[in-house]
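Minutes, structural biology subgroup

Action item carried over from last meeting: produce the structure token record for Uricase (Chitinophaga silvisoli). EB confirmed the sequence was re-checked against the source entry. Recorded below for completeness.
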Amino acid sequence: MLTIMIKLGENSYGKNAVQLSKIIRHQDHHEFRQITVNVSLKGDFETAHTLGDNTKILPTDTQKNTVYALAKEHFTSSIEAFALRLAEHFVHTQQQVSTATIEIAEAAWSRITPHAYISGGTEKRTAKIIYNAASTTIISGISDLLILKTTDSGFEHFIKDPYTTLKETSDRIFATQCEASWVYKGTLSDYTAMFDNIRATLLGTFAGHKSLSVQQTLYAMGEAVLEAYPAVKEITLKMPNKHHILFNLEQFGMSNQNEVFIATDEPYGYIVGTVIRE
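Output recorded by EB:
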């Protein structure tokens, strides 16, 4: 009789979408911080799966409470620093936990007065920490960065087969809801300053680059970051193409010189690339 061997493979558990807001009170102004935290733990949890033994399980509700409790004293600077503090806590206080992964997304708020703010829209600053006894990986980034340029973008000389209807253009709207994440070689003393500088480099490159394709601009943006910041090991960019289609005004006897467009949400092109150091 054939014996079937079954065992538990890679597994993890944690708490997602922990919503936290904090006021950091200074003498002459307040800082308002709004973050979403995801916690994921790996370790010796096999008996919980195979035997229903929960003696090695730290409840996800406790993980949630830990985020709020540690935020009081330790969420005072960058989201990277707070994520690292959370990861260290779970690994060092729970013997059965080998690796903690903490992901944080921070909403963008800009100060109007010392105590009033305006939302930065959907844009978010992100951080991901993967921490264990052997290594620490620090990944920073930005998501939902909606950027657009009205010229210096084209798309020509592509493959044309029996199903191709797209027309070549040397002048089009280039819009994307960019997501970027970069891996540091080690730890930094000031993650916020580095984030601000990298964000500015990404925006400046996008605005100034004469784009022959989304792919080319993606590479140029990643290349600019790696050239400017030796502390960055690699950078990944996701750039969905938010299409603006030229509307046919000829049916009304009118010309359309790249002036009137239809903005579409779906379907959209999805371009992803990682730029690395050799």
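Discussion: The longest strand covers residues 97-113.
Next step: EB to file the record with the rest of the batch.
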